[in-house]
């Protein structure tokens, strides 16, 4: 066992021996561990995406929490932006060790209940490795693909059966263990027609036999227990994407195709999924993905009208409405909503203070060092060819001291370095969901393109484009 966990695990073993002796009848459970190279000072303990507890890290980067009553089932722990699952049977006492720099590959559990949780991590890593190695297989014809997919599934199934026999886990846990195995396989089958078309240019829709999707008949699309489990949700998303795209290929423009495909997803989800909880989770996932990828304002409006016909989750509706409203406010020709930014001198200024010169705002985070350097190098290059623009780097992290340290060690002449004073406010007003987000404004502070990307091959053409004439759209 890893040295830093020997003492905590030993203490838990003593505690568990007492539980066995006195026969605990309550639902007390323990969760703790250590985070190496933490990026913040807490661990979030969650159930179905909702935070149950915020557990602070001690000075030595360890954490520990006693739960007086913890219902057996699947939970997750987050050290933002990363997360993983943890399963608790009655009175389990678990410690986890994780390195924030290599999160998934470093997770190790010990204590009562550790074997089944280490199995989940092993299965997750097997599936991730399989994903990375499998892409060339999508180029094969249907028979060749199925043969490879079935062979991969059989290997994973042997691993699953072996661990199930060794650990002798409960039927309740087996639901999640089996889901990790099966839904990874089913997802591959759903995305095959799509990926094959993208990679080879050949549409396989008419060549896939009806028996190919036979597994769908035995699936439960209304399983509340799995509604918070990524393998299940990912599968439903892949299945809906596959089913929604079947009748649309080669008939519409890219923009209209995105709208029609996602509206079709909503309609299919409403037909297949009757459980309100599962349906709302899937509808919300579809809405978030669509609204943040397709910035066509008219299509966004049409999509939201259809979304509201099917969704009954008012809290999520409000959140999605907020994103939709923010996107509407970011139309070309509108004035960029002002947010508060902080300079290296500690002074707070509104983003509107950069009006008066054409401006490029681009975001970065210390958590993605390669993007930070690549984005700044791109900007310096653009600055040489476009001296009429000012380039403003907007850091989205909370740690002002770390931000200043990074910039002191990296000089980028000509780039104005700022940091969000309130990232949540900036995120809401500028609809920031991806770190690759870039906003281009005109000299008067109006928006030229609020959804640009420094790494897009057409980015420089965006800089050269004439300003949007808002007056032409208001007649």
UniProtKB/TrEMBL annotation:
Listed InterPro entries: Thioredoxin-like_fold (IPR012336), Thioredoxin-like_sf (IPR036249)
Top-rank lineage group of the source organism: Bacteria
PROSITE patterns: PROKAR_LIPOPROTEIN
Residue span(s) of domain Thioredoxin-like fold: 356-447
The protein, known as: Thioredoxin-like fold domain-containing protein
Species, as recorded: Flavobacterium agri
Phylogenetic placement of the source organism: Bacteria, Pseudomonadati, Bacteroidota, Flavobacteriia, Flavobacteriales
């Amino acid at each position: 066992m890893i040295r830093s966990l020997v003492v905590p695990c030993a203490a838990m073993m003593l505690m568990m021996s007492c539980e066995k002796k006195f026969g605990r009848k309550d639902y007390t459970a323990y969760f703790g561990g250590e985070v190496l190279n933490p990026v913040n000072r807490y661990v979030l303990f969650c159930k179905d995406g909702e935070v149950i507890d915020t557990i602070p890290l001690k000075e030595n980067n360890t954490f520990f929490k006693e739960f007086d009553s913890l219902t057996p089932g699947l939970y997750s722990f987050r050290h933002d932006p990363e997360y993983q699952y943890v399963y608790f049977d009655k009175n389990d006492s678990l410690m986890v060790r994780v390195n924030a720099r290599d999160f998934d590959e470093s997770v190790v559990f010990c204590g009562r209940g550790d074997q089944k949780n280490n199995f989940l991590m092993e299965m997750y890593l097997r599936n991730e490795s399989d994903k990375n190695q499998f892409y060339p297989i999508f180029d094969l014809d249907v028979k060749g693909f199925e043969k490879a997919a079935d062979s991969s599934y059989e290997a994973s199934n042997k691993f699953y059966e072996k661990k199930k026999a060794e650990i002798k886990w409960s039927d309740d846990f087996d639901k999640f263990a089996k889901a990790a195995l099966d839904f990874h396989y089913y997802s591959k089958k759903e995305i095959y027609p799509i990926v094959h078309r993208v990679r080879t240019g050949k549409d396989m829709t008419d060549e896939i036999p009806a028996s190919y999707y036979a597994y769908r008949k035995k699936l439960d699309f209304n399983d509340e227990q799995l509604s918070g489990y990524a393998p299940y949700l990912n599968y439903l998303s892949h299945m809906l994407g596959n089913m929604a795209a079947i009748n649309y290929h080669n008939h519409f423009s890219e923009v209209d195709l995105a709208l029609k495909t996602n509206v079709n997803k909503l309609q299919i989800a409403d037909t297949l999924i009757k459980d309100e909880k599962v349906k709302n989770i899937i509808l919300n996932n579809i809405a978030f993905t669509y609204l943040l990828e397709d910035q066509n304002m008219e299509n966004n409006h049409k999509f939201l009208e259809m979304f509201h016909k099917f969704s009954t989750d008012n809290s999520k509706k409000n959140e999605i409405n907020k994103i939709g409203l923010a996107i509407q406010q970011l139309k070309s020709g509108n004035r960029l909503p002002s947010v508060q930014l902080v300079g290296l001198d500690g002074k707070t200024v509104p983003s509107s203070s950069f009006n008066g010169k054409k401006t490029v705002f681009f975001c970065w985070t210390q958590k993605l060092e390669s993007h930070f350097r690549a984005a700044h190098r791109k900007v310096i290059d653009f600055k040489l060819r476009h001296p009429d623009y000012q380039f403003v780097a907007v850091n989205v992290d909370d740690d002002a001291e770390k931000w200043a340290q990074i910039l002191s060690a990296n000089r980028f002449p000509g780039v104005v370095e700022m940091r969000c004073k309130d990232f949540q406010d900036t995120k809401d007003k500028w609809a920031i969901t991806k770190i690759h987000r870039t906003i281009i404004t005109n000299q008067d502070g109006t928006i030229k393109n609020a959804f640009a990307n420094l790494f897009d091959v057409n980015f420089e053409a965006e800089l050269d484009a004439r300003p949007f004439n808002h007056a032409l759209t208001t007649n």
